[in-house]
Amino acid sequence: GELPEHLRETIQRRNKVLGPGYTLIYKEPVEFVSGHGAHLIDRDGNDYLDAYNNVPCVGHAHPHVAEAVARQMAMVNTNTRYVQEALVDYAERLLSTFPEELSKLSIACSGSEANDLAVRVARFHTGGEGIIVTRWAYHGITREVASFSPHLGAGSPLGPNVRLIDPPDPRLAVPGTTLAEHMRQQVRGAIADLERHGYRLAALITDCAYTSDGIFTDPVDYMQGVVEEVHAAGGVYIADEVQSGFARLGESMWGFSRHGVLPDIVTMGKPMGNGMPISGVVFRPEVCEEFGRNVRYFNTFGGSSIPVAAGAAVLDVLEKENVQQRVLESGNALRAGLREITKDSPYVAEVRGAGLYVGVEIVKDRETLEPDRLLTEDVINDMRDRRILINGTGKSANTLKIRPPLAFDSADVTRFLETFAEVAKNRL
Ligand code: PMP
């Protein structure tokens, strides 16, 4: 359809003044002026179902978070160089959601900063430089983190100290090998290749839901062997929970728990403040002690009062509204419905995911699994035209990424599935 006049004008002005790299999603871009739960409202009062934004995890404009931030903003904002009881309370509370070995918290402002610090500490602790990530991983935007984010593409070169392994897609395992064997073999090979080039291992870092690789949440039986290989080589395992954390996957607060492993470092961000910029790094104390003794790390906004107030309010809501249970129920219903709708489609290879992180892989042919990026884009834009927001992910951007605010309830699931069925009838 035709873009509304004011939107066309704003986009023209935007293109004139904004720096490089800004892109809009959807053939017909959209602007929102308010939101609640998993709903977004445009200027004309139309209600969109948000099935894509994971930052407003407890819901858009959640009143409890808004009130906590406004109250703190109207009182004072101090940084970590002053005693802040609220920061200590928050750290104790957040750490209580982790196994007791993970007992130290640093706070920063973005997932990128969290991963930057995590890897810096890992290098310091291990004396190594080598980094292993999955083949289409994304971990952030600093120069260091971009150097191990292959998802950024050819224009953003990987470091010579970086090695790539397959994501845990069971279909990539060589016939006759289990996924666990395949993953272990991949890590062993990467470590050997690093050593051959003079790099000792610092860290393996994985997104616990492998979201930019195409969303691979199951099975969960391979990580133990992988972490053993990493430790045997003197490296640490960093779990990137920026996407998978804060109950997103339904079964647990943290994605790594599903895999039955204990990371040395965990990073988190996006949903942590429901929109306030706050991110975290959780360490086993022995991993970060030397770094702390030798390096000064001060982050002006990281751990200051306002973002911490937002973080604490998010934890309140996660507890009070029993969010994890809702994620489990909505996620299961959503995946079951999607499987039912697409079971006879020649173009849907797989519906996968856990909790409210769901992927639908779209292919030209179910046998060859040849990706169909254009069809994926058509589905995404058809959904948007019917006022439901999703996007795509994976190596060939051919997996629908369905990742709503955790406020997504059973009425939202029903609306999503009814609309998806209409789109699927035409396209899939
Ligand atoms: N890690 C993962 C897994 C991410 O998905 C992202 C952001 N998409 C980041 C790190 C970086 O976070 P931020 O954009 O807050 O810097």
From TrEMBL:
One of its GO terms (molecular function) is diaminobutyrate-2-oxoglutarate transaminase activity. Keywords: Aminotransferase, Pyridoxal phosphate, Transferase. InterPro entries: Aminotrans_3, Aminotrans_3_PPA_site, PyrdxlP-dep_Trfase, PyrdxlP-dep_Trfase_major, PyrdxlP-dep_Trfase_small. The keyword Transferase applies. Signal peptide: none annotated. It is an enzyme of class 2 (transferase). The keyword Secreted does not apply. Its EC number is 2.6.1.76. Coiled coil: none annotated. Gene3D superfamilies: Aspartate Aminotransferase, domain 1, Type I PLP-dependent aspartate aminotransferase-like (Major domain). Belongs to the class-III pyridoxal-phosphate-dependent aminotransferase family. This is Diaminobutyrate-2-oxoglutarateaminotransferase.
